[in-house]
Write a structure and sequence with these properties.
about 200 residues; alpha+beta; two-stranded antiparallel sheet
């Protein structure tokens, strides 16, 4: 009869235990954890792409608001308008008597007076600022993509007097636009004085 050493049996079992590998349950749990992590990253990546696509519209809204404010400053500095005219038509009193239209207006090119947001802008052509290359990737060819902004954005110019300051007015430019299902608002506040 062969004699079995107890210390030898323990070594064989330990050796077999080391090479056993993962169980099916352990593998499934690790796959689930890994899938959750990858899907979370995919969601963050997708959301980043959506926000990056909206960034150009945010930039356009900012520039359109700045252009409106600069129009008002230029009209004051060149004395194209008097101080009494640098107001809304109706404004806060209902009869402010200025030249800037009340309420949200479509984005249009300035009319003959050169001012943004006045009555003669209605006759102007739509503001087609965004012109990009079409499928041929060449700008200036018939297939160029033209985005008419007045179908996407509105601009409101609101000019109100600053209390206790007869020579100072607050200008609030509000650009509203909808991209997909997202409605956004950009607001720019500035001040204009009667003195150039």
């Amino acid at each position: 009869m062969e004699r079995i050493d107890k210390s030898d049996v323990g070594r064989r079992n330990t050796r077999n235990h080391r090479h056993r590998g993962f169980t099916v349950v352990e593998a499934l749990v690790s796959v689930v954890v890994l899938s959750f992590g990858v899907l979370s990253l995919a969601g963050v990546y997708t959301q980043g792409i959506v926000f990056a696509g909206m960034a150009k519209w945010d930039y356009i809204a900012q520039k359109k608001a700045e252009a409106a404010v600069e129009t008002i400053f230029t009209a004051r500095d060149t004395q194209l308008l008097t101080w009494a005219q640098i107001q809304n038509v109706a404004g806060t009193s209902g009869t402010d008597g200025g030249v800037f239209l009340d309420g949200p207006q479509p984005l249009l090119d300035p009319g003959p007076d050169g001012l943004i947001g006045t009555a003669d802008d209605i006759a102007a052509i739509p503001d087609t600022v965004i012109i990009g290359p079409g499928p041929d990737n060449v700008l200036g060819t018939p297939d160029d993509l033209v985005v008419v902004l007045n179908t996407v954005m509105t601009r409101e110019i609101q000019i109100v007097p600053v209390p206790n300051e007869p020579n100072l007015r607050q200008i609030t430019i509000t650009i509203k636009y909808t991209i997909g299902n997202t409605r956004k608002v950009y607001t720019l506040i500035s001040y204009v004085s009667a003195f150039a």
